[in-house]
User: What shape does this take?
Amino acid sequence: MKIAALALSLFAALGAFAQQPAGEIKDTETEHTEASARAVISGAQIALPSNVTGGTAYFGALSAAPAGNGKRAPVVVFMHGSSGLSLKAIGEWQQWLASIGIASIAPDSFALPKRLTYKSPIDKTVYEKIHALRLTEVALTVKALPTLAWADVSRAVLAGSSEGAVPVARYAGNEFQARIVMAWSCEDNYFVQSHKTAMPDDKPVLNIISAVDPFFSPTNTWLGNPSAQGHCAAALKNNKQASIVLIPGAPHTLLNLPQARSAAEGFLREVLKP
Assistant: This one.
C-alpha cells in the first residue's frame, strides 16, 4: 500500500510538472536610463475629456496633446500589463474614461530600449526586476502629474492590470485617492517572491479579477500556491473601503467587460466625482 501511495504521489507530481509550460525571456534591460525615464512620460498614452480640450476628446501621445482650455479633470494613472500600450483594450478603456469626464495617462514602460519581455513562467528573481522597474514608473508619473495643465492632482486614482497591477498594489505613497487593481490577486504565487501589497488601509481599493483567471486563480495548475484564493481579499482584510469584484468565466484582460466597466464607473464616480 505504501509503495502504491508513493507511486500515485509521484505520478501526480509528474503530471503537475508536465502541465507547466516553458517560459521564455527576450532582451535584457530592467532599469530606466535618464533618456528612457523621460520617454516613459513624454510617450505616455493619454485621453482627455472634451471639457478639458475645449473641443473633441483627445486620445494619443502626451507629447502631441492639445493645449486645452485651462480646465482640470480628475485623472486615472493606468499601468499597462506585459503587452504594453499596444494592447487595444487599454486605449478603449481610456477613451471610455474620457467619455465620463475622467482624464487618464498610461506611462510607457517600453520606452526603455531592449526592455526585458517574457512568456510565463520564468524565475521569480527576473519577475522582481520587472516589478521594480514598474514601481519606478509610478514614481515618475507622480512627479509629472503636477506639471500637466489638465490634471487635477487632488482627484487622482492609480490603476493597473496584470503586470501593471503589481506596482499599483505595492506603491506605498499617499498621493492617490484610491486604487484599482485588475487581473492581479495580491497573493504569493509564481509571479512574485512575495506579494508585498502596500496599499494604504484608509483609501478605497477596487479589485477586479476573473474567477478563472488563467494566471492568478486556482485554475492555474502552476500557480505555485495551493491555498491561493485568486483575489486580493486577504491582502485587503484591514481595509474597510475595499471591494472585490470576481467575474465568473472572464478572460485575463477584462477592462472592457460590462461588469468591469460598471464596477469601475461606480467606484470612480464615488471617489472622483467627475
Notes: Confidence is low (pLDDT under 50) at residues 1-18.
